[in-house]
Design a protein that fits this description.
Length: 504
């Protein structure tokens, strides 16, 4: 605790410094005032806990000094020393909150008793102030937490809230997602708090649902956040992703900022290259078919079959852009990717039965995809698995393009094949492909496909263990009437007649 001595008599100042063992009472003399004006300046500059002051001095009297100091907000203790036992002096001193009024010559025991009493008062008051600060800090933190979460405030919190809104501050909500254990999260939380204090930034740091939430006051210092993020990642060998809300105009809208920041945090999964996300830029013009696992599985399987690594890469990048558009949520992304691969696995098994054991089990695929930390991780995994399948199929695939097309039709005749689709798949103009195909096979594409399907149907009919409508669907005809007409056109009799003749 600090003591200032103000008296125009040098001998008295020196005597007071010597006769009292100040250190034994936890006091330290930090200065002396040689008159009233000098004393007032030193009070307001040094802000001592206790001032010993004479009443009669040049410039300003002791009482004038005390009055002016009180008017300027000084809350410390005063002991008046004077050679005059004037009642009016004592009355005014009491009015100004003077702790003790001691007559000169100073009685050592009387001064010691006064100092001891004042020491106890100062300690008690400081303890109360600390408790009040802790209490106010706790209430403020708890109030901010409830406002962030959109919860109802109790009466004490409402009272504190009314005081807080008078300050008319603006806020930003920052959510930090930390990869690490609970103990590490607590340490990082403390680092966030201490760093903001070091930078003189106002705000509250909270832990909500295993995330660190900052309610930052006034303007947002983006560079400060980047430096803080880098510092913590380096110190704790971890990864931190952050999302920042737009500016919140007042405390009542903290929950809106929190919800917005949470939504933006999801984009760290889609934009892993961005560690701090403010306003994500997303592509709005996308092909919604990429959200259909059945369609996507067929597209990728077709590209694998024709050994087109370039188009596989392009297709996966297009898929990534679709995911980044926000058309589906993160959970749906895992579902689409898992089901896409399961569909590809089934297509491989159906088309190349001898290769089904080359693929990982369905549960392994699902577990691996759901363990991916971000969209880049998913795309890398999908590309790797597709290229593995491609390499296996490549062994049995012909070299020339036309042979590849015929090979592809032979493995996919049951699908809804069109010449235009094959042209796109194999990078041909559709009209040119039609002519080239006829020159190579001697038949138009439609005739070749129909004859291939009918021949497969004839094989299945002779087996005798399937109904006609089931066979029609298996070989690629959705409508029975169309199948009947095509069968009779190429075979000369109906499917039923052909089946009966085979049974005879």
């Amino acid at each position: 605790m600090k003591v200032l001595i103000i008296d125009d008599e040098p001998n008295l100042r020196a005597g007071v410094k010597v006769i009292i063992p100040w250190q034994d009472y936890d006091f330290e003399i930090i200065g002396e005032g040689i008159d009233g004006v000098d004393g007032l300046n030193k009070i307001m500059t040094l802000m001592p806990d206790l001032v010993l002051i004479d009443i009669r001095m040049p410039g300003l009297s002791g009482l004038e000094v005390i009055e002016k100091a009180r008017n300027k907000g000084y809350q410390g203790k005063f002991i008046i020393t004077t050679g005059y036992s004037d009642f009016e002096y004592a009355k005014k001193a009491i009015h100004l909150g003077v702790s003790t009024y001691i007559l000169k010559p100073i009685d050592e025991d009387e001064l010691l008793n006064s100092i001891e009493d004042i020491r106890g008062q100062i300690i008690e008051e400081k303890e109360k102030e600390e408790k009040l600060e802790i209490s106010n800090e706790y209430i403020e933190k708890h109030t901010i937490r409830k406002l962030v979460l959109g919860e109802v405030l109790n009466l004490y919190e409402q009272k504190h809230y009314r005081q807080m809104i008078k300050e008319e501050k603006q806020y930003y909500i920052v959510i930090a997602q930390v990869e690490g254990e609970e103990k590490q999260l607590e340490a990082i939380l403390h680092t966030f708090k201490s760093s903001l204090l070091e930078q003189g930034r106002g705000g509250i740091v909270l832990k909500i649902n295993e995330q660190i939430v900052l309610a930052m006051e006034e303007s947002l210092d983006y560079k400060l956040l980047v430096k803080l993020q880098e510092r913590i990642e380096q110190k704790y060998s971890t990864t931190i992703k952050m999302a920042i809300s737009s500016c919140v105009s007042d405390l009542s809208k903290l929950n809106q900022g929190y919800v917005q920041a949470k939504e933006r945090l999801h984009y760290t999964f889609l934009f892993p290259e961005l560690k701090i996300i403010e306003r994500p830029t997303v592509q709005t013009q996308v092909d919604l078919r990429y959200g259909d696992a059945n369609w996507l599985g067929q597209e990728l399987f077709a590209l694998v079959q024709v050994n087109d690594e370039t188009k596989i890469e392009e297709e996966l990048q297009t898929l990534k852009c679709f995911f980044r558009s926000g058309c589906i949520n993160n959970e749906k992304i895992f579902s689409v990717c898992s089901n896409t691969f399961l569909n590809i696995k089934q297509s491989v098994a159906d088309t190349y039965s001898d290769l089904k054991d080359e693929l990982p089990l369905g549960e392994v695929i699902i577990e691996r995809i759901y363990s991916c930390k971000d969209i880049d991780d998913i795309i890398r995994y999908m590309k790797g698995e597709l290229l593995k399948i491609l390499q296996v199929l490549k062994i049995n695939t012909p070299e020339s393009t036309m042979q590849k097309i015929v090979y592809y039709i032979g493995n996919n005749y049951q699908r809804d094949l069109k010449l235009e689709y094959l042209a796109t798949l194999f990078n041909y103009n559709s009209a040119y492909l039609g002519k080239s195909f006829k020159n190579y096979t001697g038949k138009s594409f439609n005739v070749y496909l129909d004859q291939l399907r009918i021949n497969k149907a004839k094989e299945l009919l002779l087996k005798g263990d399937m109904r006609v409508y089931e066979i029609a669907q298996i070989v690629g005809y959705k409508h029975m009437d169309y199948f009947y007409s095509k069968f009779k056109k190429y075979v000369g009799i109906s499917p039923l007649e052909y089946k009966k003749r085979g049974e005879e």
